[in-house]
Amino acid sequence: MTSDVTIDTGQEAVGHIRRTSTDLLRRIEDRLNSLLAAERDVWAGVHPRAVVPINALSELITSGGKRIRPAFCVTGYLAAGGDPDDPGIVAAGAALEMLHLSALVHDDVLDDSSQRRGLPTVHTKHAALHDSRGWRGEPRRYGEGVAILVGDLALVYSDELMAEAPRSVVPEWNRLRSEVMIGQYLDVHAAAEFSAAPHSSRLIARIKSGRYTIHRPLVVGANVAGRNELAPAFEEYGEAVGEAFQLRDDLLDAFGDSTDTGKPTGLDFTQHKMTLLLGWAMQRDERIHSLITEPGHTPDEVRRRLVDTGVPADVERHIAGLVERGCKAIADAPIDQVWRSELADMAMRVAYRKA
Amino acid sequence: MTSDVTIDTGQEAVGHIRRTSTDLLRRIEDRLNSLLAAERDVWAGVHPRAVVPINALSELITSGGKRIRPAFCVTGYLAAGGDPDDPGIVAAGAALEMLHLSALVHDDVLDDSSQRRGLPTVHTKHAALHDSRGWRGEPRRYGEGVAILVGDLALVYSDELMAEAPRSVVPEWNRLRSEVMIGQYLDVHAAAEFSAAPHSSRLIARIKSGRYTIHRPLVVGANVAGRNELAPAFEEYGEAVGEAFQLRDDLLDAFGDSTDTGKPTGLDFTQHKMTLLLGWAMQRDERIHSLITEPGHTPDEVRRRLVDTGVPADVERHIAGLVERGCKAIADAPIDQVWRSELADMAMRVAYRKA
Questions:
Q1: Hey, which residues 99-118 in chain B have their CB within 8 Å of chain A?
Q2: Which of A205, A290, B46, B352 is spaced 20 to 30 Å from A184 by Cα?
Q3: Predicted ipTM?
Q4: CB within 8 Å of chain A, chain B residues 35-94
């Protein structure tokens, strides 16, 4: 496999690789939809209601999302010189996004989130349906039950997609998935304990978010292209930019605008998420712990106190340092210069996103 | 691949195939444990608490279970003449059992079951832990969140195992898994509506239980042995014996002994499960519906009324007919006679089990 980005100078080269990436991402989107459409066809003939869990996934895909994981997977693949016409990369990118849908649906139950991408979450929607129809049993258990099964189905479909990628990707794919589940467990446990332990928070953020979002999708892409030797550079880049991604997440939750993010803000406070931001802030000002855990305090009080600690400004500086570290990590990687620039650009977009 | 069961007469042949099956089932058990042990080793070095979800699966394996799915998978494989030394069948059998563990952990949340195999269910155990430690947030959400993640992890591991089987198994494996999830959704929906619709109940029982337990494991086994042409006979056998399996399940829940089954009985009543047994009974006596849905009635009242309808006796007759149909289905299958007897024997064991 050879890179065909050797033809032209700066701007042209950037234009070319972006068109190639965009085209691959469009095909990944098509693959997600075609898998669900095929499943819908099969199941519609079995039982009219059997398509409900499939439709829940289609709605989630249609309602938005940043497609960060497919984007990094495609970038890792193309930077490694992968052939843009190979269907294996389309399958791999679609598998990563489908896995993410599963994680979102289950996460929303874990966090009891009511909104996702501007729509009611799966469990909220089905609990409300149960309630409005006056069905038997408890609306909450029904809604959460449906969400468990919808997330399980997405997990199965993600795997069905990845089975179309080269088999060499299996170990990385396995590691990525068990990391997400175990990282999530550590996260809900840390939220339950809610004691400031920045070392532990940082580890959890790295496992459940950074690796899953950036490092491993890049490595999956390189692997599909047959270039496993890029893994160490992509790992270093991914660990740094992944942490920046997570820190921006923390800041957006604390200070962002819910019309941008499509979900309520301040959830980390109400759910006692031991984010890095909160962990660091509590180390400087113990009263933040009680502002969050004791009743009668508004999110605005927490926000003001957070700003007073100076931690948000420090986090901004830390993010800048991480982006720099990420760029350094790929400075000597055996990839075309235009891909180094593209990865630097993606690091900036991830670290300074608004939603 | 050739069958090596051509040497000896009746009893000897039976003894031989049973030893071969038992040995394979033991290796499947070892593979389940070795995968979890390897994962434990990896994760113990990352975070001391990261092994908790892995240990939850180990405990579930150790606490019992009938291993019906691996048994049918191994039988399908050996009946098809598969080589007992091939590691692919061990991986496939272990994958089926790991998938089942995932389904059990998630089912117990869906049904709010407190016990499984004589132990507290995952969500019950972790909710109690949360409560006893006085952690933040709601014990129920924490317990169910942990169970969601433990089930997800098992789903990932099941796939990790199946990736070691021949790739030809992928379509059957995909179908089996999406069938479980969608069948379960139809089941929780039917329980919520709780209207007697025996046609629909029968379809759901077939999708979520019969195919998953018998038909598809047999076909997976035949496929791993490279004998897809056995699929139609195994399908017919599996559909009949699978329905018998499910009807026995309904009877055991209604009339069984919880010390035998390792879980509380009468759950189908309290959870308004629209089983075939209840569907048929309600068609004969409408008052059963209100005995179940209205407060103030004991399970014993429901049981007495059920017996009065004569449906349990009819179900017994129906089970006998299904076993017969299953045996007929394989009468002309191109497998050794000793395997035809073994499959007939397994049909009896499944249909007349006590737990």
A1: 102, 106, 109-110, 112
A2: A290
A3: 0.92
A4: 39, 43, 46-47, 49-50, 52-54
